[in-house]
Design brief:
This protein folds into two domains: 239 residues, Rossmann fold (3-Layer(aba) Sandwich); 80 residues. The N terminus is likely disordered. The strands form four sheets. Strands 4-3-2-6-7-9-8 form a seven-stranded mixed β-sheet, sandwiched between helices. Helices cover 22% and strands 30% of the residues. It is of the alpha/beta class and 369 residues long. The radius of gyration is 35 Å and the shape is elongated.
């Protein structure tokens, strides 16, 4: 399945300029990469861990869906404004730092990764786990590559200056059919790296060398129209993958509750917790001591009690444990007598009340046993 009709491409909603460190995938790069991606699966899962406004991944989804595939597109974005826009164009979008998100490992058929460019900020105490020399591109790659299933397609867009020996080793160890192209947009000297996920193994020397060589920027430009073997997005696994935000903010929690309301207990709230508005009913039979003890222990015997004679008591009920002591004497076969003491625990009801009846007894402590 190849789609060459530009009219079917999802319209670009993201703005093509740097905004607080954000630079969305440019239109020409996106359209060129789409011609290299294909799928014949009935259902696929795709993800972008730094999706911005979600426009790029939404375009990928529509491109793959043209052939009849049911595409599930997930995005993660740390910026609130962009994340909430992404929620309107993707199946699910999480407003969160990528480090605070759980995604089922090896569950995604395509990884679109255009991460933030630059060096990580390391705190003085070293609690973040990042060093000042660690590139953000590598951090996002290490975390997101585990989400991609074997045979899945990776689209990585990074500055070619980041493709040092370490990065080249990481890519070559986890991917095959790796190709690197110079992106049409060169504001940050970007390259597009395409690859197919494989089981982690010893890096192929020629692949690693080619990636390192691309770090100089001397690579072929990305073709406007792909004529080689397409990168085929595999079928999603049968089990349903999970995307979970570990630190959910109140706004997202409210939205999720609204979205999942039919599946929660909220529609049954009035029926489950409407006992307070019902008229009190007498028990079917007289309560025993055990019932009284349970009522006292659970705090049900409390509050203002008004008698038929007009007396008013502020009641506080409780229970305490006591022991019954029983002594028996037994005679053994040899004629000796032994004393057997049996201690039995029992719960004693204790109800105390303050007399609020106007008159001379006002304020008296009443003890009910």
């Amino acid at each position: 399945m190849q789609n060459h009709d530009a009219g079917l491409i999802f319209p670009r909603l993201a703005r093509n300029f740097v905004k607080r460190g954000y630079f969305p995938t440019d239109e020409r790069t996106l359209q060129s990469v789409l011609t290299a991606i294909d799928s014949e699966a009935a259902a696929v899962h795709i993800i972008d861990p730094c999706c911005g406004e979600g426009a790029a991944l939404a375009s990928v989804k529509q491109h793959l869906a043209v052939g009849g595939a049911q595409v599930t597109a997930w995005g993660i974005e740390v910026d609130s404004e962009r994340a909430w826009h992404a929620k309107t164009v993707l199946d699910r979008a999480a407003h969160s730092d990528v480090a605070d998100v759980f995604v089922t490992q090896r569950s995604q058929g395509l990884l679109w990764l255009n991460p933030p460019y630059g060096y990580a900020v390391a705190d003085q105490a070293g609690t973040s786990g990042a060093s000042a020399s660690d590139r953000l591109e590598k951090q996002f790659f290490r975390r997101a590559v585990a989400w991609l299933q074997f045979g899945g397609v990776m689209v990585l867009i990074v500055p070619y200056t980041t493709l040092d020996k370490e990065f080249a080793t990481l890519i070559a160890r986890n991917f095959e059919r790796v190709q690197v192209f110079l992106a049409p947009e060169q504001q940050f000297r970007q390259v597009v790296v395409l690859g197919i996920k494989r089981r982690a193994d010893t890096p192929q020397a020629d692949v690693q060398a080619a990636i390192e060589a691309a770090g100089t920027g001397r690579v072929e430009p990305l073709p406007d129209f792909w004529t080689g073997e397409p990168y085929v997005v595999p079928r999603g696994k049968d089990e349903e993958p999970k995307l979970r935000v570990l630190c959910l903010d109140p706004v997202q929690l409210a939205a999720e509750l609204q979205r999942c309301q039919p599946q929660t207990l909220w529609p049954q709230f009035a029926r489950r917790f409407s006992g307070g508005v019902r008229a009190a009913r007498a028990p079917l039979r007289r309560l025993g001591e055990w019932h009284l003890a349970l009522a006292l222990a659970s705090g049900q015997v409390n509050g203002i009690v008004t008698g038929s004679d007009g007396s008013t008591l502020l009641v506080k009920g409780d229970t305490f444990k006591d022991r019954d002591r029983k002594v028996n004497y037994e005679t053994r076969d040899d004629g000796t007598v032994i004393e057997v003491v049996t201690l039995t625990d029992r719960f004693v009801a204790a109800i105390n009340a303050l007399d609020f009846t106007p008159g001379p007894r006002y304020g008296d402590l009443v003890v009910i046993r």
